Amino acid sequence: MGVYIIAEAGVNHNGDIHLAKRLIEAAKYAGADAVKFQTFKTEKIIGKFAQKAEYQVENTGSAESQYDMVKKLELTYDQFTELRDYCIQKEITFISTPDETDSLDYLADIGVPLIKIGSTEVTNLKFLKEIARKKLPIILSTGMSTLGEVELAINTIYSEGNREVTLMHATTDYPTMAEDVNLKAMITMKDAFKVPVGYSDHTLGNEAAVAAVALGAVVIEKHFTLDKNMEGPDHAASMTPEELKSFVYAIRTTEKLLGDGIKKPTKKEERTIEAARRSIVASRDLEAGMVLTENMIEFKRPGTGLKPEFIKFVLGRKLKNSLKEDQLITLDDI
């Protein structure tokens, strides 16, 4: 199986199920493996006095609270069931991140294939235990985390008997600047915990994800939107459907470039060998009975004869047949 590409719709539907369905269509169009939303009850995750994150203030202003901003982005469980069914119809996998226990229970009940946990929950150990008990594969984003916090989180999940964990390196900043990406931290987690790793990409462009795939990421997640100019906290740092399609293409091309790791000629190279490689040939006209010496031999194309490495089997041997200049010297000639 190739890299698993998650098109992160998140809350870019702005609380409108019709926009959410269009996002599903766009994710399918782009070639993503799955489309992911966020399922939550605002009052269960955000206090009414919580301030917005810096990037949220930059994208939506400071007039309203974080609670009021997020409440407008909420969909009902019935609407998510409708979205799941629409994903089935469109033949793309439906995923949603649960942000609290009720939503976790709901998503497990409607048959999501895995649980994607956001970076905000790395230190929420009680919730991690509840997630682990669902016995579903887990993808855990690790933005804002230290290696020690990730270790505690993964051990908490393991303590419930669930070892199907993929760790996502991430930087919780929208958009993330190149100097803050630190893809080598993904390798650090892979080596430290011996688990599959991926990258939740909040940069602008394709380069970070392509590099992550080259470094061994097996899951890539990317935010996308129908319109970067829409009102909401995540649109500005998200890809358009066309950009997402190019993003998926870049990852699939990178997979092809990486290959299987076996060093061998390709089928096309095998055909090129005959024209491009060199063989042992007569450096001039040679008569039968001559004992071959180095000055009687050259290495020239085509590559259909004896390889130059076999010269030790030719030197000092007597010719049985006369040869013309540039004629291949075969074992039958000596």
3D structure, described in words:
- The chain is α/β, with parallel strands linked by helices and 334 residues long.
- It has two domains: 4-258, Alpha-Beta Barrel (TIM Barrel); 267-333, Type Iii Antifreeze Protein Isoform Hplc 12, CATH 3.90.1210.
- The chain contains twelve helices and ten strands.
- Helix 1 runs parallel beside helix 5 (77-90).
- The longest helix has 18 residues, at 241-258.
- The mean pLDDT is 95.
Global morphology: elongated
Beta-strand content bin: 5-15%
Order of helices and strands: EHEHHHHEHEHEHEHEHEHHEE
Tally of helical runs: 12
Helix content: 25-40%
**Overall number of strands:** 10
CATH architecture of the largest domain: Alpha-Beta Barrel
Radius of gyration: 30 Å
Q: What features would you highlight for this structure?
A:
single chain, 334 residues, alpha/beta, TIM Barrel, Type Iii Antifreeze Protein Isoform Hplc 12, eight-stranded parallel beta sheet, two-stranded antiparallel ribbon, 15% strand, elongated, NeuB/NeuA, AFP_Neu5c_C_sf
